[in-house]
Protein backbone atom coordinates (compact mmCIF):
# COMPACT_ATOMS: atom_id res chain seq x y z
CA UNK A 1 0.00 0.00 0.00
CA UNK A 2 1.25 3.48 -0.87
CA UNK A 3 2.12 5.92 1.91
CA UNK A 4 0.63 9.37 1.63
CA UNK A 5 3.12 12.13 0.85
CA UNK A 6 3.43 14.74 3.62
CA UNK A 7 3.95 18.29 2.27
CA UNK A 8 7.09 19.91 3.70
CA UNK A 9 7.59 23.67 4.05
CA UNK A 10 10.48 25.86 5.25
CA UNK A 11 10.29 28.33 8.12
CA UNK A 12 11.38 31.77 6.84
CA UNK A 13 13.26 32.51 10.09
CA UNK A 14 15.06 29.26 10.95
CA UNK A 15 15.16 27.79 7.41
CA UNK A 16 14.24 24.37 8.89
CA UNK A 17 11.89 22.09 6.97
CA UNK A 18 8.76 20.86 8.75
CA UNK A 19 5.51 19.18 7.77
CA UNK A 20 3.02 21.84 6.67
CA UNK A 21 0.71 21.22 9.66
CA UNK A 22 3.49 22.10 12.16
CA UNK A 23 3.90 25.63 10.78
CA UNK A 24 1.81 28.81 10.81
CA UNK A 25 1.15 30.55 7.49
CA UNK A 26 1.02 34.33 7.20
CA UNK A 27 -0.52 35.53 3.91
CA UNK A 28 -0.57 38.76 1.93
CA UNK A 29 -3.90 38.69 0.13
CA UNK A 30 -4.27 39.99 -3.44
CA UNK A 31 -5.88 43.13 -1.93
CA UNK A 32 -2.68 43.79 0.08
CA UNK A 33 -3.98 42.80 3.54
CA UNK A 34 -1.88 40.58 5.81
CA UNK A 35 -3.67 37.78 7.65
CA UNK A 36 -2.80 34.70 9.68
CA UNK A 37 -4.00 31.70 7.67
CA UNK A 38 -5.11 28.93 10.01
CA UNK A 39 -6.52 26.78 7.18
CA UNK A 40 -3.36 26.88 5.05
CA UNK A 41 -5.44 27.46 1.93
CA UNK A 42 -5.98 31.23 1.78
CA UNK A 43 -5.32 32.89 -1.57
CA UNK A 44 -2.17 35.03 -1.79
CA UNK A 45 1.55 35.08 -1.12
CA UNK A 46 2.43 33.09 2.00
CA UNK A 47 5.29 32.76 4.43
CA UNK A 48 5.61 29.97 6.99
CA UNK A 49 6.76 30.33 10.59
CA UNK A 50 7.60 27.63 13.11
CA UNK A 51 5.07 27.49 15.98
CA UNK A 52 7.50 28.90 18.55
CA UNK A 53 7.34 32.15 20.51
CA UNK A 54 11.05 32.89 20.03
CA UNK A 55 10.68 32.49 16.25
CA UNK A 56 7.77 34.96 16.21
CA UNK A 57 9.80 37.49 18.21
CA UNK A 58 12.83 37.05 15.95
CA UNK A 59 10.62 37.56 12.86
CA UNK A 60 9.23 40.75 14.40
CA UNK A 61 12.67 42.17 15.25
CA UNK A 62 14.31 41.32 11.93
CA UNK A 63 11.25 42.37 9.84
CA UNK A 64 11.68 39.23 7.75
CA UNK A 65 7.92 39.01 7.05
CA UNK A 66 8.03 42.52 5.57
CA UNK A 67 10.65 41.33 3.07
CA UNK A 68 9.01 37.97 2.34
CA UNK A 69 5.51 39.39 1.81
CA UNK A 70 6.75 42.67 0.25
CA UNK A 71 4.40 44.74 2.45
CA UNK A 72 4.49 46.35 5.92
CA UNK A 73 3.28 43.81 8.51
CA UNK A 74 1.21 45.29 11.35
CA UNK A 75 2.05 44.62 15.03
CA UNK A 76 -1.48 43.19 15.37
CA UNK A 77 -0.41 40.18 13.27
CA UNK A 78 2.39 39.33 15.71
CA UNK A 79 -0.01 39.62 18.65
CA UNK A 80 -2.37 37.21 16.85
CA UNK A 81 0.52 34.78 16.24
CA UNK A 82 1.51 34.88 19.91
CA UNK A 83 -2.09 34.24 20.99
CA UNK A 84 -2.14 31.10 18.77
CA UNK A 85 0.64 29.59 20.87
CA UNK A 86 -1.03 30.24 24.23
Structure description:
- The chain has helices at residues 53-62, 64-69, 75-85; strands spanning 8-10, 17-19, 23-28, 34-37, 45-50.
- With 86 residues, the chain is α+β, with helices and mostly antiparallel strands.
- The protein has a single domain (8-85), classed as YlxR-like (Hypothetical Cytosolic Protein, Chain: A).
- The termini are far apart.
- The model has no long low-confidence stretch (mean pLDDT 94).
What's the layout of helices and strands?
Layout (H helix, E strand, L loop, with lengths): L7 E3 L6 E3 L3 E6 L5 E4 L7 E6 L2 H10 L1 H6 L5 H11 L1
Antiparallel strand pairs: 1-2, 3-4, 3-5
Helix pairs in contact: 1-3
Q: Could you say what the CATH topology is called?
A: Hypothetical Cytosolic Protein, Chain: A
The fourth-level CATH homologous superfamily is YlxR-like
Number of domains: 1
- Helix-strand sequence: EEEEEHHH
Helix fraction, binned, reads: 25-40%
Give unreliable regions as ranges: none
Main beta-sheet annotation: 3 strands, antiparallel
Computed CA radius of gyration, to the nearest angstrom: 13 Å
- Give the C-level CATH assignment: Alpha Beta
> What is the tally of helical segments?
3
Strand tally is: 5
Q: Supply the helix-strand structural class.
A: alpha+beta
CATH architecture: 2-Layer Sandwich
In one word, what is the shape? globular
| CA distance, first residue to last residue | 39 Å
* Quaternary form: single chain
Task: Report strand %.
Answer: 25-35%
Strand order of the largest sheet: 4-3-5
Provide the residue-averaged pLDDT. Answer: 94
